[in-house]
What we know:
473 residues, alpha+beta, two-stranded antiparallel ribbon
Amino acid sequence: xxxxxQKKDLYLAAAILNWIHMQYALHxxxxxxxxxxxxxxxxxxxxxxxGRGNICSYARxxxxxxxxxxxxxxxxxxxxxxxxxxxxxxxxxxxIGDAVDxxxxxxxxxxxxxGENSVGAKRQYxxxxxxVENCQVGVFLGYSSGSNRTLIDGRLYLPKDWAExxxxxxxxDVPDEVIFKTKAEIALEMVLHARENGVIFSWVGMDSFYGExxxxxxxxxxxxxxxxxxxxxxTRVWLSLPKTGIPARKSDRGRIPTKERVLEEDQAPIEVSxxxxxxxxxxxxxxxxxxxxxxELWSNVACIRVYPVDDGLPGKELWLVIRRDDxxxxxxxxxxxxxxxTNFQLLAKMSCSRYWIERAFEDAKGIAGLADYEVRSxxxxxxxxxxxxxxxxxxxxxxxxxxxxxxxxxxxxxxxILEVILPKKKVxxxxxxKIIKEKHKARESARRSHHRNVxxxxxxxxxxxxxxxxxxx
Length: 473
């Protein structure tokens, strides 16, 4: 084990953090005003936080700031989060970009919310809870190269009823140009934008929610992008290309067939879970995947060429990757448009790369404050996500730099170092009274807002009842 980390290296971390912030200061300044100081305070609040945090906890720990200035910075200040994210993508490409082993991954995350006033919040599937719950959902892009990983983009999914509700859009400052888009449409936009922004990668990964959407796979293929897409076990495929065409008319009566279909009825597609049991044992390969904390991870992988069902017809020939990790009883299924000559070791590596994006989400939520926010507006949500990604970038850069002194350094270790060396606010009696007073004001404001909403809803129901009665009379 190589361990040469010394006291002076810890304080070098603070200097590197200052340098990082200086590179991004231009995004928080305009001709009339700048919020450079608040941006630094917000990042520092994230990095000093232990466990769940928010603006109030940031204000308690960061010197020379308060709730009001931080809240204005994240919710009202007009700085452009897209410029920050584009800058982050450029830096990630310089740091860990790899045209051979680098990959970007589509994923989403739910953020449970109380009430219906937070932008985009409604009852919808929340992956974080594993069930339908009242929440916001963000669509994200992650980047991984080896064990290095981070998030590089994120956009809020705005459900259709929200997108069509002028009143709620106005209350949450949703820009006029924002229209309803499916999660997959948002994901595709982010992938293409990352490529246009110079992010280099070898393939795009996605879970089964996105992977089972044939149009998305086809569009990525048309864009010349390699994908590895999780699919459900009931996905149907053909092992050989069936004959298709417009069937002949069986009699003089009835409509003339015009729709192409599979002509050979005995060539029905089969589910991939059924196909797994039919595979020749010699087609399975045992591959080393990666080291884990306890032991090496090995997987049994089979790769075969298939034609997935696409609107009832055979789609383009793809790789079907079937993987069962050692010690696991269930198999995972994926489709990839990697070239036909791709070696199985690479397909196995691609198959397992999603693990690092799951780790990136753990980093984002556990140490970069991604899920810890108390904002309701469109601007506030996207500003917070951008700042969380900037914090992740800082942790990654510090980890790469300080990791030269010790082999096993992690971003969690770097976070713990920053918690010690960054300056903290000294809270005296007057300061704690001020903080509690501000919290109580915010709490009272939220309570009054809730009562007003309840009253409006009650008045709306009473009015509707009166109208119905009058119509009956």
